[in-house]
Fold these 4 entries.
Entry 1:
Amino acid sequence: MKTEWFESARLNEKYCRISLPGRPKVYVFPKQMSNTYALCAVRYGSVDRSYQCVGGKKIILPDGIAHFLEHKMFTEQDGSDAFDIFSSYGADANAYTTYDRTVYLFNCTSNFDKSFGTLLHMVTHPYFTKESVDRERGIIAQEIGMYDDDPDAVCYENMLATLYHDHPVRINVCGTVQSIAKITPELLYECHRTFYNPDNMVIIVCGQVTPESIIDAVMCETGWGETVAFERCVDAELCGPAQKVITRKMKVAMPLFAMGFKENDIDADVLSRHRRDITASILERMLFSTSSELYNELYDKGLVTSPLSVGRAAEDSYAFTELCGTAKDPSAVCEYIMSHIRKIHRIGLTYDDFVRCQRRRLGDAISRFDSTEEIANALIGYAFDELDILNDVELVESIDFDEVKNLFEKMYHEDNMAVSYVMPLK
Amino acid sequence: MNVLRRNFGSSGELMTLKTDKFKRNILIMTYIVPISPATSASDVLLPAVLLRGSEKYPTNADIARRCEQLYGASLGYYYSYLGDSLMINIYADFLSDRAIGTQDEILCGVTELMAQTMLAPMLEDGDLRADEVAKAKIALCDSIRADDNDTAAYAFRRCRELMCGNDPCGYSLSVDDVMRVTPESLSARYFELRTEGHWEFFYVGNEDADSVAKTLEIYFADTVHGAPELPRVRAVSDHPMRSEQESLPVTQGKLTMGIYAGGITMSDSDDYYATLMSVEIFGGSPISKLFMNVRERLGLCYYCGASYNKQKGVIYVSAGIDPKDREAVEREIYAQLEQMKQGNISDAELHAAQLALINSARQISDRPYSMWSFCNIRTMLGVSTSLDHHIERIEHVTVEQVKRVASKWAVGDIFFVDAEGKCEYEN
């Protein structure tokens, strides 16, 4: 067993990483809050649609299986539901699946040990029957239907489908009604055996806990699987967008748009990728926030009436920035944004904007430690990449204007941009 | 939680909750006005216009840039219904000076910015700027239209309008009402609120009350405060059940059912705490009767749950369903409602609901906005702000009490969005 402490006097925060034999890495972030938040994260998301074990053949999985597995992990062998058990201890439990991870979590203000034991047991003891898998198919089909009616979700997913030719990030996390029809208990067991192995998971606890109590619980759970050596068969897609524009007509009162900027130079080094992530967040604010010249011009011209929503996702096989909003004439907005980007390429970014936005980013890096939920969920990415979350304040301060300018030159171009619109039916 | 109430200046009112837990603090300015088709559009529009610029910070960009200089402070507003009243909140959310290592820089900075926007707006010939009013009107109308993009929220709104149709809170802000506002009428409303309105401040953070009051005195000393407007809390009036539906080109049907909660609204009564428990058991969690039966046992939906409007005494059941299952879903909701009325509640259900509500209550002290929300509304309604008291009352609710309050529940109005099936075109 090895325990490493990470500490920041400036932030007045510390946490530890514990390595235990045959167990996932454990992160304990003590925090004087009324609630304690615990999660178990599996590095298995919807983009992992194929893999290959050492010496084995390539396995292709039905789309949506990681999410389906997440739903089914709540069923216990005796037929009970883990939600019932958490509830009987007063814990609020949930789970979610994204492109790159599956996360099981709970928060509580009492009976932590019992709930934590339930979490560990749940993720290590899969139990699937044909009947329960069939019933879940109906529930997930309703979930898919719900997202199909959600114009924001449709606009965002179509944007990804235009940016990417083949990369699985272009496919809905839930899969489709057709793809989930192919999911069987046997396939679910196989995915659990492969991906839910200790080397591919982390456990994070934030709240009024001590590392000792967490170590005991993790060691007491004996159901951890064997380490499985496998390779993910997801290649980075380093080329331009699959399509420039996609338009869908739906029942909406206001049209929506989502512009995507695809990145084709993904760094293999996690620290470089993280630095780029922070640099990109400063750049986004300089370009698109409510203080930016662009946003205020769009507002003054009546092209947009609410702030633009900006986000970036970057993993080892994909990276993109999305810019979303609602507008009466979304194509005019997107054209205006592109003309502004062209202007910035000509005249350059402004140093004053950089200083202010860097200061704001520094504020974000400091204030993220107010919530056990936010800390635990933010730590997942850092834990997967073995980075220290407490270093971000210094990292933000170390970024200089030239880095931001260089990144702008790389990231924002017409030829790596695609746009998705959702327009009213009539 | 111990809310400290004190005055500043000649008649300013400040409530503070001192806590060292957080790096981010909040300062919220609240005023309450009656909901009325004649004034609500102006009341909602006003903060949007004021936050567009002031004498010292003439443009929205100037305000946003000042926020960035204050390490990412945010200044904004939101409104909500509180019974038959409209509550307008202007909020500032900011890092504490202690977290940054500065002294009096951040709290003073955000208070000055808030005071500038509320007290020193940019005027043209004595009125709010016509171009900013026009743009804010368009923005609010767009936001009203965009709200209807969410069919679940649309079904909920329509059901609320039916359930509360005879009360002020049955009103929903409309594009027509917003477009009727003029720079002159909005300016008149602003000056009326400046002289006759009652503005209250609430601070949650690590500064003590004296220090916050001293800062407010500097920037809000001139504010004149009228008589307090108390929230109008009154249970919705009973009327014959109505069921309406609308067909829309969507995939999933959305059902919202309004239920009268026997006239029980927020108070310190046994019935109120029993109603909180009843709603939790009925449809408040993934182990509630609705979730366990409509979703888990029958597999009829992805979600089915209940929420309680504590100021109007209405419970809303919402579900996203396949339209062909509507009858089966309604039948099961009625069946579970009957279970509640009969008091067919297991010890495990009661215990789990108690623990869930206690868990939620204890977490209130972990979030500044939750602390404010819990204490602010209760202070206005004269209900205890003690979390221990709240938890103790929940702990003492019995199955008999749950049965007694649930026995008075009656289904009111139902609104259903029928799914025509999606009609879409791609290129």
Note: Chain B has 16 helices and 13 strands.
Entry 2:
Amino acid sequence: MKKRTYIWRIAIVAILCMLLISQPLLAEQAPAEDQKPETVYTDWTGDSTTYVPVASNGGKTLSFCEDEMLFRVEEVVEAAAEGETPAGRVWYSAMTPETYSELEDSSRIWRAYMKSLLAITYAGRTEARGNFIKAYSASDDATIVVKSGDNALRFDVEFPDVNIALALEITLEDGNLVARVPADSIREDGEYVLLTVEPLPFFGAVAKETTTDGYLVYPDGCGAISYFDRVDDKSAYALPIELDIYGTRNLEKTVEDGAGTAMLPIFGIKNADTAVLAAITDGEENAKIVATTALETSAVPIHHSNFELWYRSEYRIYLSAASTASNSVVKKENFGVKYDPQLQAEDREVTYFLLTDDDANYSGMANAYRDYLLENGLLNKDSAASSDLFLTLFMGAEKEDAMVNAYVPMTTYEQAQEICKTLLDGGIQDLDVMLRGWSKGGYGIYPQSNKLEKQLGGKKAMKALNKFVGENEGLSVSLENELLFTGKGNDIAVKGTNVPISDLMNETFLLTPAFLEKRVQKLGKKVSRFDNLSTAASTLGRIIYPDYDKKTVSNRFQTVETFKEVADNHDFAAIQGGNQYVLATANHLYDMPAGSSLQQMTDDTIPWYYMIVSGNLTYSITAGNRTGDLQVLKLRWIEYGATPTFELTANRSLDLYGTTYNNLFSSEFTQWKDRLIEISNEFNTALSKVKGQSIVKHESVGDEQICVTYENGYRIVLNYANEAFAFEGATVEAENYVVLAPAN
Amino acid sequence: MKKAVAILLVLLLVLSVGFTAGAAPSGDYTINDGVEIAIPEVYEYAYTINTVLGEKVPSEDEEEEFVPGEERTHLSRPTDMFMDNDGNLYIADTGNGRVVKMTTDGHLLQEYTTADGMDFLNPQGVYVRPNGEVYIADTGNSRIVLMSPEGEFIKSYGLPESPMLSDVLVYNPTKIGMTESGALYVLMGENIMRIDGNNNFRGYIGQADVGFSLTDAFLRAFASEEQKKVFEKKTASPYLNFCLDDRGMIYAVSQDTEEGQIKVLNTVGNNIYKKVGSRASSWQAISDAINGFFSGNIISKKFMFGEMYLNKQPEFADICVDKNGIITVVEKNSGRLYQYDSTGNLFAVFGGKGTAQGEFEIPASLVVDDEGALYVLDQSYGTVTVLKPTAFIEKVQQATLLYEAGDYEGSDKLWQEVLSIDETYPTAYIGAGKTAIKNKDWRLAMEYFKNSINRDEYSNAYAELRYEFMKSHFWVVALVAIVAFMGILLGLIFLQAKAKALLEKFELGYVETITLKNGILFGTNVLFRPARFFEAIKYGRGRIKIGAPLLVLVVVFIVRLVFIFTVHYPFQDVNPDEANLVLEFIKLILPVLTWVVAVYLLSAQMDGESTLKENFICVGYSMMPYILANVAALALSHVMGWGEKGIFAVFVNGVTIWYFYLFFRAVQRLNDYSIKRTIAVCLVSIFAMVLIWFVCLFGYSLVVCLVQFVKDILMEAQLMM
């Protein structure tokens, strides 16, 4: 009898446990609401030897050839003159047999890769060393079932050996090719789990032999370009570009500055008179961009770029904690990589914008993507987007001292007001000021305090500043709040090993995304009564990261959702960093990159990012007092369409020696005052015609000369050289620029 | 303590730069007082020569001749580079067994692959004479070859014949250089040797004193003859690379930590560059301590060329000097470049290891052109990276040159311009300060030197200022000094009389107890008559309260803190910003307290008569000289310059001997020990002190290890789940 009750008890507990565990799982898998009407697919019945049209719109036709397992998009061309065949341009889903048949050296695997519709990587369920295997849809160990639907194609791809299956849906929408990997199509029934998917890895790829007129563009920093005709003049060790979208996936590096990341989920390939702009239009937070020209290190002489969509988080683990306890540098073999058991199966979608002729260049790509963002409400169209100066005032920081850390005031609230007054009196009409390190304890105190600093003047002085802002229309003052970086506490994000995500010094931690809203409210609590002051959000547009804490779990997708929501709830005056998810709400982006990371594959930096967002919101790059050559930086501001920016203090920067912020060069306001007024007024007058206008074209017109064209036809010619430059009858002085009015 | 550990970690992990909001975009910096200071970009990445464009094809007359072609080739493990007067680059393309001559945009002009019927094997050095003749160190073939500009073989040099070279088994010349007079310098192994035009050996050059190593001497003293043979033969610090300037000066980089890794050798081989390298011998600690003692522990500017990278001394791969004497070196492991002026002031640190353009994997060679652009040869990537000076560094270099040329006004104007761009740039303050000295504006100079944390120069400027003041106010100064001296003397006489009276009253019992009120006056007797004073304490057992000696210790600590914060700038031994209360307590008070415990415990075992309280009282009072001497030193420091640091040291450190003597006498008197016995007890007490600290530290680290162990186990367990 006794035994039976025991079993009963276990059963009840087990059921309860199962209920508890399944609840969050069920909640997470709830289907999204705003789904498009489902396309009904039937088995492919078309002719297998020729290209059979599937869809036609936007001046292009999508057709499919079953024997070659290739589809293509073709330009619909008006009937040509008699005797001429219409020459519509064609984009193939993968490399055509003609291309790779000539590549005798390429191995069997590479051949399969080049003709594949998709490639995946997978690993064993219990993998702990980070090993994985790559498989290709065109290889012998994959089966494909083709289906067609209304204007669409569907490929059900299965890898029977490892029991993994997924589908790729292809449609043509307004002449753009759209590839989807529906979440519900993914199956992992065996011992293996899916890690990544590369949809259409060779779409738009260019064989080296076919042309030298073209390039790859990728959003490294503000944009970078690698020309086909310069591919032979690269280091023998140049490597492909890999960019994690929105923030590095390597949690050890999240807190450090974000190299190897992209703010936009796009890449571009120009091939003579055609170009492809690829953009992840759904699920971009879990992906990276891989771009490679036909480098010496490449296996095949083909310029290609693709997205790698991640379906599982991975995290580094210490395989033997005991052996790493010594002071010696941690050995590589002591690390392993584990994959999250949970599949992150959101729908993924990649759109390929197909461009031709005058649009077949990075300017055309930028215009197409800007239009896409605006149409879909992903980019804030701020009609009042203009600013003559974005001024960061550094207020104060802590200095380590004998007894307690000493506070070093750099700019008091009253001095901030004085500075604003001086600048407004100097004629600056549109002045945006951000106070950095305004709160108690100063800059770099984590978590940031929400109290005012007494040594800066406290409540009374802030009140006066608030009043002053209210009285001056062209002035806006915001308080910079550190949202994501925090100190050790209960509200920090952890890795899969339950260890906090932190910097090497274990001083800076990351806030659990779930607590972000709460933190924003807390930071605003004490200053909310200063109704004329707004807030600026530090790091919000700069990094994303997951949190593995069981209570507050958030993957990259959920983190982005949280960030978006917070940015939506609070109208931040400025946001640090420009990851795409903040563009829908941002008014001003600050601390933006002034260049790219100049990887060996890169030939040039281009302001690709700025071309896309220009005219819709304002942004600022390097501060004018952080350079040795202000004249060149000023040209850069103009070229990028950026707002002039400075980071100043009332006291001299020498006082910051020994604090956590000893990186300002010269920052004393009195010293810079005149330059500030001069430059802002110059921007306000000379560049008034292009204010609030988008950059539609950016091109080199000489070795060190750039021409930027705005949507209203105005052009700015910039001359970075030390000698004057003649351009269309106008003379551009050395290290200077001219604004050219449209011809008519 | 936590703070101290944190500081240490910062020093150890220089690489782990945390995230700062608006960090300087360039990452270039300078080092001042061991602290990295961000500066505006100094060299801008211009471009990289990734490949050599051109090929050598047979021409019509079927002789191999250079014809410009379209072929692009990569360099393979290149090791040396030279720039001729026309601005063409010569590169020892070691892996490809050739030397290439090319333009700075990578167009091949000439290729040298073979000489005297023998193909080059691992050529590692190249030097071009003004007439275009090329010397090639054909390392793999153990020869140096002279070629005509057109690639014709002229002459070949093997190992010179000399009894001094009899132990050279394999001749492997690497870097070469030549003076106008025709002396050829060759880096062979780790030595630079000089050879004349007839291939006669003229000796090794720039051999540093091998120095004396304590551990080495110790080992040798006890080693057998056979063991001695095993010990490595002591040699001078190895040279890594060198270059020559127009005057025939040799600019060399070595691994010499004694004189500094960068040397400028004149023709007789003497190093004329600032000899300020950090020492790294076994004498280090001892000599540091001795120097510190006699100079009053003043912070002296620690100088080293380059910086430690991953706990390793810098290893400079190459050095170049421009026409103005500005020296640039490149460090092999960190990939960083360091630029110095002709007197060893650091301008900037830039470059670095990495995969991006403008970063290096293994930099091997460095040249500078007439425009000041730097060319860095990367052995691993096989590329030449070209860096162009920015307007900022050009201003800095120009300001230095104007100063050297005697144009102080022009120099100052430029330094002010530099400071308007970067107010925190220390080199500019040194420059501006030097100009201010030339203009006899001592106060301004002092301010500049203080801004650059240069106590040495500050002190010089101060000495000048003081001299000027003395000259004009001599009689006033003299009068004040005499009056002050007399005053202090009279005060001391009066004090000692009063103290003596109190002591006598105490001895006779007229004063029953010594409390906080009269304790300080009572304690001053320790300064004048220590033996009698300690006797009095012994016989007055129970009548002396602990308050006054405790107060003395508190005052000692306060004096120390006041000293740190108010001592004259050049005499600081701790930077007030970095001062740490806990650390100061550990340094000053903790040893005293441990001494009390140790002495009490020991004397109790050795027929001692003293109590713990008495020991404490004696030791407390014995610290009174410290107060006196430090207050005096503090006051004097404000009228002293660095030249008088000896006097300062007597006050600050000499007093240590005084109170050590008092400690000793206290032990002796309290316990009625003989001198011999006292010495024994004191020595054992010191040992006991060390033991006490050791046990405490040991316990602490054990706990830490235990905690770590448990943490590790938990983590492992978690991962298993």
Note: The longest strand of chain A covers residues 164-173.
Entry 3:
Amino acid sequence: MTVAAPLLRARNLVKHFDLRHGLARLVQPQHGHVVRAVDDVELEIRRGETLGLIGESGSGKSTLGRLAIRLLDADAGEVRFDGTDLLRLEPAELVRLRRRMQIIFQDPYASLNPRRTVEDIVGLGLRIHERSAAPSTRDRVVDMLERVGLSAAHLHRYPHQFSGGQRQRIGIARALVLRPDFVVCDEPVSALDVSIQAQIIALLNELKRDFGLTYLFISHDLSVVAHLADRIAVMYLGRIVETGPASRLIEAPAHPYTQALFAAVPRIDAGGERPPRLQGDMPSALDPPAGCRFHTRCPHAGERCRRVEPAPIEVAAGHTAACHLHGDGV
Amino acid sequence: MSALPAHDALLSLRGLTTVFPTRHGEVRAADGVDLDVRPGECLGVVGESGSGKTVTFLSVLDLVRRPGRIEAGTIVFDGRDLRRLPPEALRAIRGRDIAMTMQDALTALNPAFTVGAQIAEVLEAHGRATGRSALDRAVQLLEQVGVPDPARRVGVYPHQLSGGLRQRAMIAAALACQPRLLIADEPTTALDVTIQAQVLDLIADMRQRLGMSVVLITHDLGIVAERCDRVVVMYAGQVVESGPTRQVIGAPAHPYTAGLLASMPRLNQTRAAIRPIEGQIPDPARLPPGCRFEPRCPRRRSECLQPVPMRDIVRAERAFGARAVRCVLAGAAP
């Protein structure tokens, strides 16, 4: 196996949201006022792979996805995209790089401007980045629409005239029309019905192959990620707790949180013993537990877990877990 | 399935049809629905958006929002046709004998009242308790459904609870009068997977403790496989397949059921091809004249252009084991 330089590498990435600023100051926090959404995260995405990022609501996975393409500015840390440090780029340079990094959003209803036609929505990136004249833009928009299963007949329609699945196809066309290298897919199928979800998954796989894309695929649906990802990273309360090859992580999850997460997925072909249920809710990111952040819900938690935050430990080649069970014990 | 209500069912629907007038004509959101819920069983009702699964059960409780209305059919609960009951008699049954929890607990609970007040209201409406004793009972109910620190939680407002606790509070209100039938509409769709497992465990546990029947409305066949004795599959307003869960999932008789199963990514089959169903659900105002799945069906043939009735493919001594399907291929070799 040759080890190529990763397409994207994040180090010590931190993003905190201060509730005393903006609208959020209207809510009365019970503990503290800083949401530690992403708290010292390392992430590596290899060229041509799909990295699945899983975790429950509030784990920080969407924030991390936005930091990776600098839709949000990190408070600290470094994001290198193809060798370039994104966080130090001047705005004009960032705009130029943006055509190589795109995002597909979860909600096909909220992420398309209702007052714009499909042609405007999909062509906007071309107009910004190429300042190209309308006729040639149109050809490329039509081309892209056909690649995602729509057609020229849809050019002048508005988002409300489409079903959820079709809107997600528009969102995909918008992201891919500039032929990016890297696409953050933020829960792109979560709002869709099962039969439509399968269509979009198949389409994303096909486009990845045809365009040589690299995906960061964010989802709370483990089965979807299991199906798409080459590697999986698991987030809990702002930290990545486990990373590894998808098949290995599913067969032999090493972190107790990952184990509980997979055990909770309802299965059609059920059978065999399941580990016990996870008790309670995820603690607040305003006041994450000391030591290992998972210790309040962990069936194996011991004294060390309450005091010492575990560092990632390699449990097998390319498979790391941040858990004392694999290190000096609990 | 017999045209008559099943005598051994707790709830028996025959020909239930609920319509909504729209600009494009009348839409039959539930169209001739037949189904039975047996005492003590957990029945899964599966279907995608617009399949009519929620409307069917809102109709049972006469909660269909105007100008929607029930146009035809019988709704027999415990031997009585609910459609023939005067409103006050139905009101007595609703919440006491049949309770329903809604998909989104945040909108289903009233934001202006405490959780305790809303549970107490159910008890007071049915004359089970009043004032202080109703609130005490609410604390007990919250404790029963696994809400930690129930004495404090009884006094909080819905927005102060997490999604999982909110769903539990709504279940507590639904169980306040120990109903004989709990209709849980997508109880876990808004929840994370670990919390989903907790809530489904709770429903299973309460079903056992109270000996009640449960209707679990869901789009997730995995949940049905793990939790339901029998399953009813709906598509575009109609029941297309019903039977014992293991049989339906193990050997689906309707191409739509088979398509749903093939479109589901599975944890233990990484990279295995999922096969999507082509096309999309039909516009409810312009339904295909024959089988409603025909335009998307990989096995369609000319007979499918005519309306297709439900057919029994397994008759059982007890209707419990029966299987029925709405497909011309039923009984034919696959």
Note: Chain B touches chain A through 46 residues (CB under 8 Å).
Entry 4:
Amino acid sequence: MENSEIVLKLENVSKSYGDKTVLKNINLSIKKGTIMGLVGKNGSGKTTMIKGLLGLLKLDDGKASLFDQDSWDLPPETKQKIGYVPQTINMFDGWMTVAAIIEYVSVFYDNWNNEKVSKLLQDWNLDPKSRFRSLSEGEKQKVAIILAMGHEPELYIFDEPVASLDPVARRSFIKELIDLNLDSGSTMLFSTHITSDLERIAADVALLKDNKIHYVGDLSKLKELHGEQMSLEDIFLEINK
Amino acid sequence: MSDNNEIYFQIHPSSGIPIYKQIVEQVERLVASGHLSPGDEIPSVRKVATHFEVNPMTVSKAYSTLEASNILERRRGRGMVVASSTENTKTVKERIEFIKPNLEEIAEQAKQLDLPNDKILALLKQLLENNDGK
């Protein structure tokens, strides 16, 4: 795969729910190996954008594509290349154990790295024998992250993956992402409100404001544009004043 | 300072100064002061990215910037090293130029905070002496 290859693309994408516009003419493309942060207030359209990208909802206008395939009609082999962590983790019946869920999910994939999954379970102090419903929100989120990593995808899409993680788990998650990016050149789109995490992990950011892209590109350039006293959080607050 | 296992700079991700620029400025200072000499190895992108938990591309960008300004060069099989063309014997005056913008900023802030000059100088002296003791 060429380094300059575009892995993810949105072209003139719009979406409304009834008369409420959620996305207005969004254009975005991400090259292989990029880690891009997606930042915006609640209701700015981050989750809708991610769902549109994954073909989980129908867009009103424009086109979303992953690996050059229309998101609405992704072939199974393209789906194998994607790891997704949704914002709300309620995809399993609570009585299933963590181990059973992992086994259930693993059969959908040609590649499944059991060794890696076991290591992550251990690193993140998760007992495979626990029932899903007995887990805390943070632990559920960890399970969802592990499930998204088991098949070693080329592209990761994270929708608020760290919201319920404690700082130790967040840092360990970030370290894992850096290793993945270094070892496999994985591409990542990462939405979060925790801007301090994005400042570490993302070299590029897309800022959503009023359902449009307010800024997309190099995080360093954004900081240079705003002067040296401002963190990403300060910039985010200023833009949304 | 030539030990590749040693990471001799600091990164503050939430600073307004972009991470790549923080690395560039610190390497420039270390080279200007002679703490890094021509041929000294610079810690690898992997090492810096995993040590500080920052995006590898950002570290790469810093190194490319330093390479473009002839401060670093790529050596086959050894990664990045301080360029042989770099003078490590910059004069005191030249080295002062590197630190001057930071001092100007401190002077400005001290004025805004209405802090007396002698207090600031005493604190700076104390910090410098602590450094010497290390």
Note: The interface with chain B takes residues 33-35, 171, 174-175, 178-179, 181-182, 195-196, 199-203, 219-221, 223-224, 226-234 of chain A (CB under 8 Å).
